[in-house]
Amino acid sequence: MTPRTRPPARGQAGPGAPPDPKYCRSCGRRMEWRKKWERTWDTVLYCSDACRARKVRPIDADLEEWLLTRLRSLPRGQGIDPADAARALDEEGGTLLHEPARSAARRLVNRGLAEMVQRGAVVDPSTAKGPVALRSPR
Fold first, then answer.
1. Residues 31, 24 contacting (CB under 8 angstroms)
2. pTM of this structure
């Protein structure tokens, strides 16, 4: 019988295994390791050229701050819709900030400052579709 080997620590991939996923700095979606990024994985920050060009703008930081302030003022367990931040900060009253608000919510979840829920269950922010809420982490 051979002795068991210890599994690699989180963040350290074993031989032949892809490293842990990263999250895009702009949109907050999970980036899966790709063979073409093998040599540059440590320097990859954005999931696409569009996210690299867009980066995080001042309005994105404002959306994050609005969401965090609102989360702190809510009773524990209650959530808010990221679209509320878009409506609150959009001077024209349109839907221009809905996707940036969702991106801001994903970035907060990735930093561990919030949870994204759908119908009461925590969901992966990278793959969630439809209406979601943001709540304080448990």
1. yes
2. 0.76
Task: Tell me the backbone φ, ψ of residue 107, rounded to 5 degrees.
Answer: -65, -40
Contacts of 2 by beta carbon, 8 Å cutoff, 6+ apart: none
pLDDT tens track for 96-116: 888 899 999 999 999 999 999
Residue 17 CB coordination number (10 Å): 11
Question: CATH 1.10.10.10: which residues of the chain?
Answer: 58-135
| Rounded-to-integer distance, Cα 125 and Cα 63, Å | 16
Beta bridge partner(s), residue 118 = 121
Element at 79 (helix H, strand E)? strand 79-80
Cα–Cα distances (Å) from 13 to 8, 17, 21, 62, 77, in that order, read 6, 6, 11, 36, 35
CATH class of residue range 58-135:
mainly alpha
